[in-house]
Amino acid sequence: MLNAIVIVALLGFVPNGHSWDENKFNCDNNIPCTKEFRDQGQYYFAYDADDTQFIQCDQTGGCSVMQCANETVWSTNIYTSVLAFRDLGQYYLAYDASDSKFVQCAEHGCCFVMECAPGTVWSSEAYTCVHV
């Protein structure tokens, strides 16, 4: 019976239109900037309202909502903003400066400029280098 009361009490604090996720926070009623987290060196957290923003705590417990750079989303796995295309499973992109090169990105967020083989160019439709 006590467990049911605790669950109902927790659900009462979830704002309308939001779902509760213990790994996402805000600076209003689910503030992560506690002494416990700071003592563990944790100052960055997922923001519960928008994946393109994140929570940054300061050393005194202050809480700020920060914006990721354009076309990036927050990744709790590596505590930084990463390119949003990763969520779509796109790890290969056209390289604007040359059609004989492309950009290859890894799951952890690093991207590298790669060269197509001689006699080939990057095709965004085929997601590979193709013969010209």
Give the C-alpha Rg: 21 Å
Number of E-state strands: 11
What is the average per-residue confidence, as pLDDT, rounded to a whole number?
79
Gap between N and C termini, in Å? 71 Å
Approximate shape: elongated
Helix content: 10-25%
Brief account:
Helix content is 11%, strand content 34%. The protein has helices spanning 2-11, 35-39; strands at 24-25, 44-47, 53-57, 63-67, 72-75, 80-83, 92-94, 101-105, 111-115, 120-123, 128-131. One of its GO terms (cellular component) is extracellular matrix.
3D structure, described in words:
By secondary structure, the chain is mainly beta. The chain folds into two domains: 18-82, no CATH class; 92-131, no CATH class. 11% of the residues lie in helices and 34% in strands. The protein has two helices and eleven strands, in the order H-E-H-E-E-E-E-E-E-E-E-E-E. It has helices at residues 2-11, 35-39, and strands spanning 24-25, 44-47, 53-57, 63-67, 72-75, 80-83, 92-94, 101-105, 111-115, 120-123, 128-131. The strands form four sheets. The chain has a four-stranded mixed beta sheet with strand order 1-2-3-4, with no helix packed on it. Strands 7-8-9 form a three-stranded antiparallel beta sheet, with no helix packed on it. The model is unreliable at 1-20 (pLDDT under 50). It comes from Helobdella robusta. One of its GO terms (cellular component) is extracellular matrix. InterPro entries: Chitin-bd_dom_sf. This is Chitin-binding type-2 domain-containing protein. Keywords: Signal.
